[in-house]
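Each letter names a residue; the fold follows as tokens. Both lines appear below:
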Amino acid sequence: MTSLIVRVLPALVLFVMLIHAPAVSGHEGHPTAEVQHAVPGFRPDAFIYVEQADPVEVTLYTTGEKLVLQTQTLTRVHCGSDLTGVTQDMLAEWAELGRKAFEPGQPVQVIGGGGQPRGVGLDIVINLSGSPPPLAAAALETVANYIEGQFADPIQVPISVTFASLPSNVIGATSSSYIETAWPTVRDGLINGMDADDVIQAFVPSGSTIPVRYDASLTVTNENRVFVTRANFKAAIGNAAGSVATITFNSNFDFDFDPSNGITSGTTCFQSVAVHEIAHAMGFTSGADFRTADIEMLDVYRFQRTANNPSSNAEFQTFARLVSFNSPDDDHNSDLISIEYRMSDGDPWQASHFRPGVNGVMVPAIGAGTTYYPNFLRASDKDMLDAIGWDFPAVPADVTPPTPNPMTFSSVPTALSTSSITMTATVATDPSGPVQYYFEETTGNPGANNSGWQSITSYVDSGLTPNTQYIYQTKARDNASPERNETNYSEASSTVTHIQQPNFLATSNLSATSVDLIAAGTFTNLGVGMSGLYFESLTPGGNGGIQTWVQTTTVTVTGLTPGATYQFRAKARNQNGVETGYSQVTEVTTFPVLGDCTGDGLLILEEDIACFVNALLGVDTDPPGGIERSDLNFDGETDALDIMEFIFWLTCECQ
């Protein structure tokens, strides 16, 4: 787990920041309360309510690692409010009002929220409680839809919104959730989350710290942590459950909820204010506002404008950031190298804004009668939100798998041998390419393997069992998101591995007219399906009882001619009927019939006596061989010594 230096804030601590702006309507005025508490890590004059919240378990996008990180909630008055008469007790009260509005049993209207998982697109979910004005829900839905259309981050951002009776000079208050995050985790998240047009994130400082100047001097602190709003954390770093902010709007304030027909004189554009406050929750905040020696995500790009201001990517990586309240005065900017923007420095306007004059909704205040409708976020706003990890421009999330869908085979599974099967998927196409393919074997028969995801369309499964059925299906996925969009599986296709080829034929029980043939070898699943062996005679007249498919390794050949030579061979086929080649040829000579001088396989008295007499006289037969066949005592000579043997075989009944 990543190691963090945790600097814990005391719970439920309230302190005040003096705002040096004129106390006029539409601007941040002077608070009336005295500072009562000093909190480590925050300026003692900061007007903000700080609560230590429960730690949260997060899952990093880069590695899938789970961490438990410290959180805190900061409540502040909305930008543009007149702070005259506002006290620290009021901030604590408003934070509590926001919590109570969402306690169990309170009515809550959900605006947006398709419940999409990560990988489908940005989903702003507004949970609306309290007693909102009649047009508020429709206005908030317009705002949520607008922001969703600007960014492509595949996350859900829950925001709690309520209305309450506040002093008439206060627009509202927002409680934002922050997650304390180690710099290496922030850095890796920014780099990993780069979208197609991002460049500068690749040049954020490497190593375990980021160099920061916390005052006008050249003293550099090697900062090891960043406070990141929960919404910004989800966009750039990892998954973190829970509402990102609670926004309380003043139900007594003069809002115009529908800017499509202009802004009524003396009223404030509610939709512009809502976009502004949500952008703060999205991470458009600076540690220069309230903290003494800590940075927030926007500060990764904050430098002194006239000195130590990087002009190249290399300098951006090494130059120290400047995160200092009003020091040096009016000399702060956000620098993306390709473009830079003047920033407020905390006095007279909060540092979590552009300097007045920059064209953006994130200027310090939205005056009465002003609207940013319909294009609320300007180029400056989008550039900075893009830099801190939001994906802009918004390319619609790719939720479509490759085609064809379902997937198909261009070449169905086919056996190559007794132990391997080959197959080829149809080439799939997808705009986000490259496409990957997966082949799955579904029977689980011995030796079967799945391919795993691969970039080539062909797959050979090897190590299989002979003459065994295997069934495969294939699917494809694109390169659109961490989850990838997958097609449905193709139709399943089966095949059978080849059966073993017979090596040779052995023989047994040889006689004058028959012989047993035995196929040598192992034949797996010989009794399954169309499996079998085919024994064949290459010699005419030698096919008695054979030359048909049998599911046994031994056959008996009958009807052979005694003393004749025959040639046999065999082949096998698997359960699908796919045949092997033939075995080697085996030659067999049957036993002769003793006394059969004529060689016709029979003892016929008249014919064989005449033949035997001629053999004794040295006259051969037609066909030849009678002399040799008459050597019945096997001494190599046909003579009078063979007469008694000839008489024996003619008269015995032993053949």
Confidence is low (pLDDT under 50) at residues 1-36, 115-119.
